[in-house]
Amino acid sequence: MSAGRVAKIAAGTVLGVGAVGAGCLAYAAGYEVRSFRLRRLQVPVLPPDAVPIRILHLSDLHLTPGQRKKQEWVNRLAGLEPDLVIDTGDNLAHVDAVEPTVRALGRLLDRPGVYVWGSNDYFGPTFKNPLRYLTQPRRTAKPSDNTLPWQDLGRAFKQSGWLDLTHTRATIEVHGVRIGFRGTDDAHLGADRYAEVAGPIDRNEVDVAIAVTHAPYLRLLDAMTADGHDLIIAGHTHGGQVCVPFYGALVTNCDIDAARVKGLSTHRVGDRSAFLHVSAGLGTSPYAPIRFACPPEATLLTLVPRDAE
Ligand SMILES: [Fe+2]
Question: How far, in Å, from the CA of 237 to the mean position of ligand 1?
Fold first, then answer.
């Protein structure tokens, strides 16, 4: 084969790969990032004969005022009429995002709800080298001067009756079932102090024990499972955000394994085990507005009796 022909084939290959890459990027940024899905899962954690309890899990909205499609989609979720809403943080991505977030949640704020904060509620987005996400996937977040009005959002949540679970215990009764909650601040910031709410679950006080935190770091999953929680709820991972089709996530942005980056799984410590639900979340940093093979999602978790299976 002549040198000219080899050069032509090489140039064609480079152009072809470039075109596929550009196509994937256009799809990821132009379509998938706004391709919101509702995932539905059953979790067998209720006492025998209990009526199913429907929990809407929202996470990682990373909302900006201009994200109208996301706001409208979230607003329609109220039609599900969940018994309870759990919000695992990273709601904000703009200094003016509090009102749009409250408007988007709309009638969901009339339902009982609990929440914890993520680092992106406290601090605004900053540009980061996207390659760092792949090369330093467990890097913890640092506080910055670019603060967001998370206290205003917290006031709106509290006025609606939602409970802030940050280093707090709370019990909510739904259909006669006492759900005990414990929550922490964001482990990705190193702000988690689980010791403040730790201790064995008292089955005389609660029928179901749910732990809520933003980032599913193993130190929290271990401690929450060892205490006897039935279910642990988290977000933060964005499901890996940019995934490989038919393979899955490359990174989790914390120290859990990629197999549990989103969805329902099990966490085991000794002879104890807890269900773990990690939401892939509904947003991204405005500086990395792409999702690939990992659409944005919310989850409707239906708690059913332990013997339901
Ligand atoms: Fe997030």
Answer: 7
Environment of ion ligand 1 (residues, CB < 5 A): 60, 90
Task: Write down the mean pLDDT value for the chain.
Answer: 92
Q: Tell me the C-alpha to C-alpha distance, in Å, between residue 156 and each of 21, 73, 93, 277.
A: 43, 20, 17, 26
**Rounded to the nearest whole angstrom, what is the distance from the C-alpha of residue 185 to the centroid of ligand 1?**
14
Are the CB atoms for 226 and 268 separated by under 8 Å?
Answer: no
Number of C-beta neighbours around residue 14 at 10 A: 10
Q: What is the pLDDT of residues 115-156, one digit of tens each?
A: 999 999 999 998 876 656 556 555 677 777 789 999 999 999
Distance CA 291, CA 9 (A): 32
Residue 37 in tokens: 């899905």
- 3 state SS for 173-215: EECCEEEEEEECCCHHHCCCCHHHCCCCCCCCCCCEEEEECCC
> Would you state the pLDDT for residue 31?
79
List pLDDT tens digits, range 2-33. Answer: 777 767 766 766 676 677 777 788 777 777 88
Q: Do residues 97 and 91 make contact, with C-beta atoms less than 8 angstroms apart?
A: yes
Contact (Cβ atoms closer than 8 angstroms) between residue 220 and residue 269: no
Q: How far apart are alpha carbons 289 and 140 in whole angstroms?
A: 20
Q: How far is the CA of 92 from the centre of ligand 1 (A)?
A: 9
